[in-house]
């Protein structure tokens, strides 16, 4: 990986990001801003965030191959990288069967997309794949710098490391900085539940210890608590560190709740980012 991600990053949807937020994230010591959701082939927000900062990495998490032609993705990558050399990481993935009407042979479609990126000389060292299962994890190992798994646990991180070998492993982790258990759990459940109707996430969570009953929406407390950590900043920092102890290289933290920036500030202190 030619772009340094740092130990901890921030994961936010594109509409939740702006230049001021990016500058504060960099000041707090976060290493990477992940532009979440499905940013377009030409993600202008990436360039704006890079313009507003000095050294932090900006990554897409993820560009959806069904919505973004590979040649257009490659052209925008080169434009941004020329302006901010080495600071942009291109994350791509096949999205979800439920959200894409043209979802046929997603693995081959992802391979074809990578073939175009190769032909356009998008460096493998500056791209990652959204990967959960072993087959796509192996593709991330062989055709990209590594993997950016979403909605996972340290158990998945440990298993993914066995597949990836020395390749990059950068999971996402949701958190709620709130010591009121019921309120925090409700906040986490509101986010987690929306993913429990997506078959790729459900299958992956079943592979790593959750039963079908637990994963039936709105999800058991155990599922919600694992996927959206809650408590004090110090307690959450311990949960984030669990991914690093499971051999993640980097963890992208998605703070949920009404005041995410306050959460990121508290976590930066608890994680000793500066």
Chain-averaged pLDDT: 95
Low-confidence stretches: none
- State the total count of DSSP E strands: 11
Q: Total number of helical segments?
A: 11
Report the C-alpha radius of gyration, rounded: 17 Å
* Share of β-strand residues: 15-25%
* CATH class label: Alpha Beta
Portion of residues in helices? 40-55%
Question: What do these coordinates show?
Answer:
- With 274 residues, this protein is of the alpha/beta class.
- The protein has a single domain (8-270), classed as Luciferase-like domain (TIM Barrel, Alpha-Beta Barrel).
- It contains eleven helices and eleven strands.
- It has helices at 19-28, 44-51, 70-83, 106-119, 134-143, 154-164, 181-192, 199-207, 221-227, 233-245, 260-270; strands spanning 8-13, 32-36, 57-61, 63-64, 88-93, 127-129, 146-147, 168-169, 172-177, 228-231, 251-255.
- Strands 1, 2, 3, 4, 5, 6, 7, 8, 9, 10 and 11 form an eleven-stranded parallel β-sheet that branches.
- It is globular and about 50 Å long.
- It starts with 7 loop residues before the first strand and ends with a helix.
- It holds the Pfam family Bac_luciferase.
- Residues 20-242 form the Luciferase-like domain.
């Amino acid at each position: 990986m030619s772009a340094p991600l740092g130990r901890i990053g921030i994961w936010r949807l594109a509409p939740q990001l702006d230049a001021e937020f990016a500058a504060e994230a960099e000041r707090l010591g976060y290493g990477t801003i992940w532009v979440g959701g499905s940013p377009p082939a030409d993600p202008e927000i990436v360039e704006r965030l890079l313009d507003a900062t000095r050294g932090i990495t900006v990554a897409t998490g993820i560009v959806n191959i069904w919505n973004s032609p590979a040649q257009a993705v490659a052209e925008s990558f080169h434009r941004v990288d020329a302006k901010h050399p080495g600071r942009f990481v291109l994350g791509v993935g096949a999205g979800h069967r439920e959200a894409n009407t043209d979802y046929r042979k997603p693995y081959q479609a992802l391979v074809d997309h990578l073939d175009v990126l190769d032909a356009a000389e998008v460096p493998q060292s500056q791209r990652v794949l959204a990967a959960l299962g072993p087959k796509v994890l192996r593709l991330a190992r062989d055709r990209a710098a590594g993997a950016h798994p979403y909605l996972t646990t340290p158990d998945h991180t440990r298993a993914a490391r066995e597949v990836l070998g020395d390749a990059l492993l950068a999971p996402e982790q949701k958190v709620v900085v709130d010591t009121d258990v019921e309120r925090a759990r409700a906040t986490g459940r509101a986010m987690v539940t929306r993913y429990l109707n997506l078959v790729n996430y459900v299958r992956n969570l079943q592979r790593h210890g959750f039963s079908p009953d637990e994963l039936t929406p709105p999800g058991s407390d155990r599922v919600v608590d694992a996927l959206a950590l809650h408590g004090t900043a110090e307690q959450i920092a311990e949960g984030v560190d669990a991914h690093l102890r499971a051999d993640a290289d980097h963890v992208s933290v998605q703070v949920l709740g009404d005041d995410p920036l306050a959460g990121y500030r508290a976590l930066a202190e608890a994680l000793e980012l500066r």
